[in-house]
Structures are given as structure tokens and as C-alpha cells.
Amino acid sequence: MGQQDARVDAYIEKAADFAKPILSHLRRVVHAGCPDVQETIKWGFPHFEHKGLLCSMASFKNHCAFGFWKGSLLAEKHPELAGAEDPAMGQLGRITAIADLPEEEALLQYVREAAALNEQGVKSPTRSKPKPKGERELEVPDDLLEALRKSPQALATFEGFNYSNKKEYVEWITEAKSAETRQRRLDQAVEWMAEGKIRNWKYVRK
User: Fold this and answer.
1) Among the four 16, 127, 150, 177, which has the fewest Cβ within 10 Å?
2) What's the predicted TM-score (pTM) here?
3) Tell me: the pLDDT tens digits for 104-116?
4) Number of folded domains in the chain?
């Protein structure tokens, strides 16, 4: 039997009014599609687990996001899940109303198939992009990679960055003088990337 987490209730309650029905709907559909699902909070937003990470949802100022941990595998069968313009938005794109979501039966099917992938022990493929000629490889710390893998939105954003944007985050984290500072920066980096932000987003002219 599935298990709800009171922290997810609190997260939904604190969300903007437009987001509450979206998050509640997504939560209900995930539980319906995977009755044994377990809820938790990772990196500040709700995640759903079933024999591993299954999916996650998040609320921002003007939109919500929802993503499957193995979304790239689901997209092989369901091309519509590969159509989000912003990789930080998950597979369903920018969600501002329940009407932006797929039909409930389709969403249920995605959840069931995602759960089946975890039950079968299917690994998520390592995604990589061809490196421009002459570009040296960036060594990403293990703790940053581990943190990113726990946040589908942040991982998608990082993978979509160019070399310079990745390097800014890597250097910011590796230059920390203490373990406590490094952990704070890791948490902050994941939060920012989950929102699609570069390291120095505060200084970008709008």
C-alpha cells in the first residue's frame, strides 16, 4: 500500500493558489497509477519512489513542473514526453492549469510504465552530448553528480548547459573551504538548477 508524507501536504498548502489543484491532481494520479508508491521530500520538493525514484513534482511562482526519473526511456515509446522546450520543466512542460496536463488515462499509463521500469531494474541511460572540437572535458565531482541525479529537473538543466555554465557551478562547489559550506552550495546549486538557473543568474540583465 502506498504511503503519503505530511511534508507533501504542507508543500501543497504553501503553494500558490493556481498550483494547489495541479499538485493535488498529480499526486492522486501517481498514487492511482502506482498503489505502492512512497512519498518523500528531496531537495525541497515532492518526489515519489517505488523501487527507486519514480517521478517528482514542483511548484514555482507562475508554473508547476512534473518529471519522470526515467523520462527518456518513456519518451522512446511516447514521443510526446520528449517535447518540453525547457529541460528543467520535466517531460510535461510548463504547467499552469490542470488543462495543460495529458488526459488522466494517459498520465496513469505513464506512471504504470515508469513503475514497471523500476520493478524490472531497468537503468536510466547516461545521456551525453557531443563535445565541440577542442573543448577540454570538465571533471564533475561525484557529490554534485549524486545530488543532480536526485533531482530530474536539476539534472536536465545541468546537462543542457554549455561548458562555461557547468564550469561555474563546479568551481563554486569545489572552491568551498569547508564540508559545511560545500554542502550548502550543493543544496543551493540543485535548487537553482531545478528552476533552470545558471550560477550567476542574479546578474543577468532582464
Assistant:
1) 177
2) 0.62
3) 999 999 999 999 9
4) 2
